[in-house]
Structure formats: structure tokens, C-alpha cells
Amino acid sequence: MKTKPLDLPVLALHRVPMLATTAEYSLEMKGETLIVHPCGRWTIEEAGQLDGRLAKEVSKLTYRHVDYDMSRVEELDTSGAYLLARAIRYGVTEAESWNVCTGSQGQKTLMSAATSAVLGQEPVAGRQWYDAFARVGQATLRFWNELVETMAFLGHFFVVFAKVLVKPKRLRGKAIVSLIEQVGLDAAPIVMTLSFFIGAVIAYMGANLLASFGASVFMVDLVGFSVLRELAVIITAILLAGRSDSAFTASIGSMKMRQEIDAMTVMGLDTYEVLVVPRAIACLVAMPILTFLAMMSGLAGGLIVAWATADISPILFLNRLNYAVGVENMWVGLVKTPFFGLIIAVIGCRQGLAVSGSVESLGQRTTTAVVQAIFAVIFVNAMFAILFYQLGI
Amino acid sequence: MPDAHINSDAPPMEARGILTQFGPNVIHENLDFMVHTGEIVGLVGGSGSGKSVLLNTMLGLKEPEGGVVRYFGQNRDELDPETRRAINNEMGVLFQGGALFSSMTVRENIMVPMREHTDISPALMRELADMKIHMVGLPPESAILYPSDLSGGMKKRAGLARALALDPKLLFLDEPTAGLDPIGANAFDELILGLREAMDLTVLMVTHDLDSLYAICDRIAVLVDKRIAIADSLAVVSEYDHPWVQEYFGGPRSRAALSAGGKKSD
Lengths: 393, 266
Description:
The complex is a heterodimer. Chain A has 15 helices and five strands. In chain A, strands 1, 2, 3, 4 and 5 form a five-stranded mixed β-sheet that branches. In chain A, strand 1 and strand 2 form a beta hairpin. Chain B is of the alpha/beta class.
């Protein structure tokens, strides 16, 4: 055994290129001691090919001590040390002691770090087969909790809102005006453009369908009813839900993440009063105005298409609109808007305040806010439709 | 073999004549700085003196307006992509807040660089990640926790574990002990010292923590007047004749830390 180190220089000379690129090892049994002779570069680049080999080989051997002879190791890193340290654990019985007989101080320290990791506690298992069921259960619970919490939020909001209305001094004028600009004015162009095209498309559909039985003029009724009663309102509400809800959730959520909300609470500011009420008021004000603009541009879209395709002059269009549709249909549309505005604001703010520490939850909550708001808007709109039908409006 | 291009004997990081400016605002001018193999260098400087910018420049996150950065003796701008990648793997960074990926567990965070740059099996990757977790002194259960479940000190440790994932030769630490309590900060200092010994690390740390400057840094580099005015051992730097340096090392906090550090080394 003692001749082995003597052979080494010759061996190394012969195999310089090999040794420079790979990691190898040889094992030697001496009584109850296993001697591991690693050589070459025991680094993470070699870990792939070394993985499992040493552990497999030692699993047939019985020994109580492990000695490491590091004299031929060119480079050792934590991965290499970890793989070497496996020899301690994976024998027929776990080795009682280990030692680095030749090697630098650094290698010894590295090996002791590695062995303590190998001998350390088994880490907890990550996933179980029943996790899928647990997730379904959690999702169901979460859905229910969301509903309850949104209702609780709404209640809390109304209490604070009523308090603020009694003491209008506590309204934050500047914040409200700036929010109305963001929610309302900035959204006006896109809302009007979309609504214009929707009105135009409805008119085209009418032109095709109604012309076949010579009732082209009824396309005015079609455009008027659909735009005024439903489409302008829904388009505006959905757009606001997508545009402003995401903004509300993201801004309040990032405030929550940076502990600004906590700072407010500690300073005695009511987050509902500071954050939620101004947004709600902004939406309450902006939503009817935006809807009105959407109605007008929707009608304009219909008017232009009617003029271009069915030779219905603008005068005739407006006359017919006034006679057949009437202004009350506009009120039917507009009366729904404050509800939608409130829904949008409350859902956006609630999701924002529900953001937890992680970046991921911010994204999740923003998505949830938009989805919930659009769902709620369409649902409530359907309720209104039923209500109006029953009332005969 | 990517490593064939890296000359481990050359200084791991060297900056020569660095010029950094944002518009008309010059941050660094004619800045020279070098880190030698195996040492721990502390980088100090006043707030707004451009420490973080310098760190970003040395990491390659920001290109300087002038001057060259050399890694292991090679000019960064002239490196071929393969060598650049190999050199990048030789560098680990601990960002100030840990910069852990919040959608992944601690273990997955540590596995990211391994998965990207090596071909080892997922099982071994997991074991190596757990070993790194063990090495930085985190409990084994933290492997499956998400960053949002960790305390500030644990996040730093987890960030360090990720920085060490590929066994870098050069470790950058951005304010490693900021926001830690004294016990945690001390433990972190000890950890860095231990890891340097075990893994042959060269460490560059930006810090304001005088205790760790005194306790573990071999050299202290002072960034004043848009350049590294002096980079030497504590004894030499504290004698350096510059008002800011005098105030920094002569202040009450510094004296307290110095006497504490002196006691510890006895």
C-alpha cells in the first residue's frame, strides 16, 4: 500500500490531460477502514458523471472508518466534497468516523461542512399524492371566504362612507379630483372609440337584416335600444374594470407590500377613508359621465353607418330616435352606472388590501380583481335586466 | 472545458480608469480598484458616493462610460461568450434584500443556477441545494419555504446559499449585515469567514457595518471624491489624511467598534 504514493508522479505525468479534465477515484480497504483516493477535479462540472457511482460502490463494503487521501485532488468544491462524503453514510452500516489524512486545511474544512450536511437531518418531503385534493378543498374554501370577505368589506366601506358623508370635510378633495382624472378623463378616448365601433357594428347588422324586408329605418331603434340600455353601460363598466381595477389593486397592493398601509394605520389614518372612499367616489362620478360619452359616440357610430348604408339622413335618424327610443332609455342605462362604479372600486380596493408580502400575490390579486369585477358587473347587469322587465320599464 | 480559459492566478477582479456618469453628473472618474485572490475587501463610502453603481459596474450590470474591467486578468469587453459565461459562474452575488425569486422555494432558488449551468440530476441538485442550506446555517425545514415566509436574516442566508450554488471563486456582498441584529450580523461575519476558508473565496463586500469591517476585512477600500482613494489594511486606511476618512474612522461608532474588535481578536 505504501508504494502507491510513490507511483503517483509517474502516473500523473502520463495522464496529465486526463487528470486535468475528469474526476476519478479508487477505493482501498484496510481492516475496518475504507480509504478513498479521489483524484482530478472534484467540482460541480464533474458531479453529473460522478453522481451515484461512489455511493453504489461503497454500498457493498463494510467499514467503520473512512479515510480520505486528498493528495491527488486538483480541485475540490462543495459538490465534490458532498459526493465524497456520501461514502460515510452509504456503506452497509454508517461509518462511525472519518478523517482527511492528506490534504490542505481548506479541503478539511470543506469536507467537514459536507459531512455535517450528509449526516444532517433528512429534509422534509415536498409534495404528497393527496395534495391535489387538498388544493380543490382549499380552492372551495377560498371561494367562500372571498365572498364573505368581499361582503364584509362592502359593509365596512358603507359605514366609513356614511361617516365621511356626514362630515364632508374629511373628504380628500385633491385625491378625488386626481383619481377622477385617472379613472374618467384618461379613459374617455378609449371608451368612446370602442363604443363608436360597437354602435357602427350594430347598425351594420341591422342594415343587413332589416333591409331584406324593407324595414331599414328600424335600425335606428336597434342601435338606440341596444346602445342606450345595455351596450354603452356594459362596455364602459368592463373597460373600467379592466383598466382601473388593475390600477387600484396594483397601487394599493404595492403600498401594502412596502408597509405603507401599516404606517398609515399606526398613524391613526383610516385606510378605508384614505384609499377606498376617494376611489369609490371617483368611480361613482366618472362612471355615469363615461357611460354618457359612450352612449353618444355609440349613437354617432350608428348614425354614420345608417347614413352611409341605408340612406337614413341624420335628421331622420335623430327624429326616429326621439320618437321610438326616447330619453327614458338613456336614464335606464344611466341609473345602473353608480352601482357598477361602486362594484368596480370596492373590488379593486379590496383585492389591493388583500395583497400579502410576495410579488406573486400582487399579480394574482390584480388578476382576481379584474375577473371578479367583470363577473360582478355582468351579473348585476343581468339582475337589472330582470328587474326592469318585471317592472315593465 | 470552459475553465481552461480562466487563469485562476490572476486577480479575480480589476477595474482600471473607470468613468461613470449619468448625464452631466460624474459618479466615478479615473477609478482604479483591484481585488486579490483569497482576500476579503470591504468597500466603504458615503451615501450617494456611488458604491452600488460601482458594484453594478464590476458585476457587469452596468457598462462604464470609460475604463476597463478585467476578470481573472482578461478584459471584460474582449471575452468570447463562452468564457464570459464560465467567468459569470465563478461569481456569486448576494443582493441587499436577498433578491430571491418569490415564486420559488428556497431550495428551488438555489437550484436555479445549477439547473441553468450544469447537467447534474435533479435529485443530486436537490441534495446539493440542501447542503448549501445547511452550510449557510439555515434549518433544513427552510428548504421548502417561500421567501415571503422568511425573516430578513434568513433571506440573506438563503440569498447567500444561492450565490454559492455554483461554488464561485468571487463573491460580491451588498450590505450583507444591514438590517440584521448584532448577533445575526456577527454570525453572518463568522459564516463568511468560515466559507472563505472552506471554499477558497475571494469576497468583495459593500458595507456600512463597522463591526464587520473590523472583524473580517483584510483590506478596506474607500470610495471618496469619485475614486478609490485608498485600499489597504485598516491600520493604514484609518491614518489616511482625508476629512471624510478621518471622520468615518475617528467617529464614536468607529472607536467603539474598534475597541470591541480589538477585544475579540485577543
